[in-house]
Amino acid sequence: MASSGTPTDWQSGKTLSQCMDHVFTSATASDVTFLVGEDQKKIPAHKLILISRSPVFYAMLEGPMAKKGEITIPDITEDVFQLFLRYLYTDTINLTEMNVVPVLNAARKYCVDILVTNCEDFLNKRLSAENACLFLEHAHVFVMDKLKTECLNVIGESSTDVLQSKAFTDLCPSCLTSITESDDLHADESDVYMAVIRWAAAECSRQNIESNPENKRQVLGDILNTVRFQKIDFDFFLKQVCDDKVLPGDMALDVINYKMHSKIEGMPWLNLNDRKYAVPTMESVWRFKTILDGSWVNNFQQEAISFKVPCAMKLYGIGSFLTNAEPSTVDIKVYNGSTLLYSGSNLPLVKNDSIYAGDVLLAKPVRLSTGKTYTVIEVSAACKVHYSNTGLEKVDCKGGTITFISSSMNSYSTAKKGQIPLLIIGS
Question: What residues does the BTB domain cover (predicted)?
Answer without folding.
Answer: 30-97
